[in-house]
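Re: weekly structure request thread

Next one in the queue (62 aa):
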Amino acid sequence: MQASVGDRLCVRGKTVETPDRFGVVIEVRGANGDPPFLVRFDDGHETLIFPGTDTVVEHHVA
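Done, posted below.
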C-alpha cells in the first residue's frame, strides 16, 4: 500500500459495533510512499500506522 501526504485513510471497524475511523496522512516515513504513515484522525489523535487489509487509501487530488 502506498500513500502521499494529504491522502485520506479509512480504517474499517473490526466488528459491527466499531465505527470506521478516518484520518489524513501527515507524514510518510517509508521509502517511495510505503508505510509507516503518520496519520491524524478526525478526532485529533495522531499515530504511526502500518495499514492492514482493513485500510483503504483515498488519494488526494491536487
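The chain has a mean pLDDT of 94. Residues 8-58 form one domain.
Next request, please.
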